Amino acid sequence: MKKRSIRIGVDVGGTNTDICAIDEKSGELMVYKLPSSLYDQSNAVVAGIKVVAEEHGFDGSEVSRFMHGTTVATNAILEGRGAKTALMTTGGFRDLLEIGRQKRPDLYDLQADKVKTLINRSLRFEIEERMDYKGQIVRPIDLCAVRKLIERVKDSGAESVAVMLLNAYLNPENERLLREEIEKALPEVFLTISSDLSKQFREYERLCGTVLNSFVGPEVKKYMNNLKATLERIGIHNAYINHSNGGLMSIAESMQFPIKTALSGPAAGVVGAQYITELIGEKDLITIDIGGTSTDISLVAGGRFEASDEKTISGYPVRIPSIDISTIGAGGGSIGWIDSGKILKVGPQSAGANPGPACYDLGGSEATITDARVLLGHLNGESLLAGRLPIKKENSQVAVQRLADVIDMDLLETAKGIIAVSNSNIVKEIKNVTVAKGYNPSDFCLVAFGGSGPLHAAELMEEMMIQKALIPKTPGLLAAYGLLTENMRRDFVQTKVTDLHEDSFAVLKREFRILETEAAAWFDSEKIPEKKRALEYFLDMRYKGQNHEIRVPLDMKETKDSRAIADAFIEAYERLYSFSTDDMMQIVNFGLSAVGDIVFPVITEEEFAGPDGSDAIIGSRWIYQGDGVFADYTLYDRERLRNGNVVKGPAVVEQMDSTTLILAGQKATVDQYLNMVIEREA
């Protein structure tokens, strides 16, 4: 029998583990969804792979690539479950971790809680050294004093060490000296030096990122080693980990920089959405990933996703390259509750996977969005996940009735209210991602995925006057599918604050040459062939005197002088703020993204079958519309829908990993890749 070439993507979420595998030659897509394992994510990962392999007749030796999105680092940070970490920093900066910045999330809240300091003061050690703002060493390191400090670190029992010296982003010499001494004396500890992780200024953010990297390092390293060994036992060797910037990195890099995986989960979904819509010519997207716990919203404009280096993880600011994704606590498991003023609220608390919504009959008793949709008729009231998850509708009735009694409302009106409140929360965040950045949401195609995304899509279209929404072929597993389409990717960024003058273009070329050299070394280390290498250039810029900068992508083939740089900045600035000035402009960061292309999976176009989708009809269901009115919705089996089939609302389309709602006055057309495109009819 001829050997196959299989590519596997596995995305682990807080509720479910999603698996997508594709035959690289035939394009056959294989999917599976199972509950995430609570204590060791690799258990569900390997169990799911074994099921898919057995059902489709392949083994580990036929797997060409394994791509994995994990939440191990994120969970460790959120739960405060990391290694005992020591900090070595410049004299006078021992308490920076607690002092932070003047900027506060709630400036006038006198009872606001500070985030927990991850390193006790007794484990924060000062080194008498100094480097000025130009990167010149003012006070050299005293190695004898350093060795004594390292002995104190050893006596403390620290499992990991974080090193952050002032201005090391300009000159890493002193940090590298420290690394040599620490590695000689403490070879078993996990070590992070800030200049390896980030070469950008703002010492507090650089410190937080360095500390978090060391804090989660031992646990992530243990998980990755365990995962690698388990995969190798079933014959899988080429394993890659998802990066928050929408690319892949090797397992070795993920163990060195585990913080880069902390925001990686939602990134794969955005990449997957961008890939499938590019095939049909859609370049302006609002992606909305609604899972069991949260909603992740991102923007793709002109075929490029928005990027950001500034993120906050559990209250800690970090500077790591990432896709700009906005997250709110609104998912299928989000809990409905009544506040002190008897107002119905939804989230951010979630029932998660365990105990889950009340209708799962696994011990959950709180009313969730899923329970509301079961009562309204949007979801199958008997089972989900193709029959693998039994549903007990009576539990939903009890849970929602408890809320209805408090606010003196009808049961079904309360359920409808839960959906309305959750949609209102999502609409507000979509406006933050679009309107607040100078974009009109109605000019974009809404791409809805995640287990719950397709249920909200039609409702959000009506609320925001969006003309078109796309529901992927496997919406509940798009993040796993996105992993199959990701490239190897690493970002190189260097802070060098430079006023923009006529001669600044020469500075730009010099700085980019330095970054290109670093990128070439990375390409070589990852064994990426010359023909598959690509570079994407960008600057972070601002007006002189401002405190924050904006990202300005550059096409170096078109950028010939400083005037072109200024024009690119003004265009980006006016889009965000609707005005520009004649003030002096500054370049703050020079950056490039090194991309190692992989061969995209084969996607076959389905033969056109015409508009008649009646073969996919499996029945009908009465669904509550409000004010005591019910409507008869036609039920469709998504697996039976073919290219060209048209589904007119009101209708419900069911599949293993999700359910799609289509309202009256809307129609869904199945495209050649079996995506459903929902449009509002005139």
Terminal CA distance reads 54 Å
| Low-pLDDT sequence parts | none
Rg calculated over all Cα atoms: 26 Å
The percent of residues in helical segments reads 25-40%
Oligomer: single chain
- Tell me about the largest β-sheet: 9 strands, mixed
CATH architecture term of the domain at 81-215: 3-Layer(aba) Sandwich
Structural class computed from helices and strand pairing: alpha+beta
**Form type:** globular
Strand segment count: 35
Provide a count of the helices.
Answer: 16
The percent range for strand residues is: 25-35%
CATH topology of the domain at 81-215: Dna Topoisomerase Vi A Subunit, Chain: A, domain 2
CATH structural class of the domain at 81-215: Alpha Beta
Please, could you describe this protein's structure?
By secondary structure, this protein is α+β, with helices and mostly antiparallel strands. Among the domains are: 6-76 and 222-261, ATPase, nucleotide binding domain (Nucleotidyltransferase, domain 5, 2-Layer Sandwich), CATH 3.30.420.40; 81-215, 3-Layer(aba) Sandwich (Dna Topoisomerase Vi A Subunit, Chain: A, domain 2), CATH 3.40.1360; 490-515 and 532-593, no CATH class. Strands 13, 14, 15, 18, 23, 24, 31, 34 and 35 form a 9-stranded mixed β-sheet that branches. α13 links the parallel β23 and β24. α2 crosses α7, α9 packs across α14 and α10 (369-376) packs across α12 (411-433). The longest helix has 31 residues, at 203-233. It is globular. The N and C termini lie far apart (54 Å).
Give the structure's gist in a few sentences:
With about 675 residues, the protein is an alpha+beta fold. The strands form nine sheets. Strands 13, 14, 15, 18, 23, 24, 31, 34 and 35 form a nine-stranded mixed β-sheet that branches.
